[in-house]
Amino acid sequence: MKNFVLASLALLTSSVHANVNKISEDAAIYAVNTYQDAQIHTLANLVSYPTVNKEGVATPSNPDFIGFKALLKMKAAELGFDYQDLGYTVLIGMGQQAEKVTIVTHGDVQPADASKWQQSPFKVDSTSESGKLIARGTEDDKGAIATALYAMKAIKDQGIKLENRIELMIYLAEESDWGPLEEFMKTYQQPKYAVTIDASYPVVVAEKGWSLIAPTFASTSAQTTTYVSDLTGGAFVSQIPEDASVVLHNATDANLETL
Question: Total structural domains in the chain?
């Protein structure tokens, strides 16, 4: 329900009604009671597409992204929204008002090593950890897409009058290439408000930047000196490493205890 409340509060910010909080809370409760199962089902469908960008394959030509966009188009039609496929970006909207509120999301995900998952990373796992839905993209960022779709649908069902068009933007290369988005934004009509419901990370500032550490080690001829010859961690530079390995030579018991 947390995400539905957040989305509804954000989308109703420009409502002509005075009691925005009451209206948005009612819409959020309606969304949970009416669409929570549908939202989870839609999320499961979204994560089933391994939308990982591949080097040498343009996103709009990648079969996984083509299928993903076909699903989004079908959901837009089912929920009564308009749909635009603009290559690297999909827009799903409701209303024809001159000004708009844009919900910014992305549909691509980072790679996933299936050997490190209890179940397939591209199938929602609701059993490994009670109360959680686990799959690549459930939080970042396909959960936000499913949330926004049904928050919009709840607002539509409730017949709430809005001052602004609501437009869900889904970019498809956020994890790998911002160039197409920068070009798109040169011609995109800027919204009155932009909202992101990307995720709720334990440390949000981790999203503000990242760094790559590439260590090198000098060789040593001393047979008793403890030294490292290799250190690796993480599969790609924008990922918080899930594991790491180190080759440590001439380690003592005390060294190992420290590690």
Answer: 2
